[in-house]
Amino acid sequence: MASQEMISVKEMMWATRRQAKGGPKPTVEKLRADMEAMMAGLPPVPGVTNEPADAGGVSAEWTIPDGEEPRGTLIYLHGGGYFQGSIATHRRLVAALSLAAGVRGLSVDYRLAPEHPFPAAVDDAVAAYRWLVSEGGETPDRVVIAGDSAGGGLTFATLVALRDAADPLPAGGFGISPWTDLAATGESMTTRRDLDPMIDPDSTDETVARYLPDGDLRQPLVSPLYADLAGLPPLLIHVGGAEVLYDDAARTAEAAQKAGVVVEFAEWDGAFHVWHMLAGMLPEADEAVAAAGAWIAKRLSTRPLKCRSPREP
Known about the structure:
8-stranded mixed sheet; 16% strand; Rossmann fold; alpha/beta; 36% helix; 9 helices; disordered C terminus
């Protein structure tokens, strides 16, 4: 059962949706600015240091837990429909995951649509990974790639691109509420639309058109649900029960399992899209981040796990 905190947050989200409905259509610039402002208003997660990075020509940022020897690196690909979101909007989430797993984070500021449509995001994610394992001081077995929403789909697309290019693969991939089917064929786009306070299915066509103005929406690197997933490293997929993208996550997990990939799939009852963003503020977010941290740590190292909560200083 959802916590009272979860119920209250969803009520606020629905109120915001109702207030915006019928108003002027926001521009891409306004949508980006609104997301930045909303996340800037949340308290930071303490216990980490952030440093800018150049990941093979791609702007990035290190997130380094204070006073710990990291067991590896989490490459993080932010969500935002491929047209919004940034290192800044996801800084607190990357901090929470880094602390929970005992790793350093590398947030990738991949190029955004519509200025830079597909395949710019995939190219940047691949470039950042190659830099990390060639010049950034890591070996593939000490790297996990993760992302949320569009960044979750981008995580799986990046793994497929690396496999197809015969690159050494990382230790694992983690998708939070991943958007893996830009063709929007999942039944949950209809059956759960009245449960999802964050994503309006009626707006997805415009979001898709920004990223892929023309072409096949079922291309493997656009919609990794349709990719051959054989040979990928172990995957972790989290999804909320109140998501129109539920079927994206569930069908991707099923497809990966059928392809012989080790998959852990976890659903949080009543949770909204990428609820992990409220780590340190929402019980379900803390639980999900802790579970993800344990999984990431297990993939990267056998030494004793020393997790820290995003609520700890």
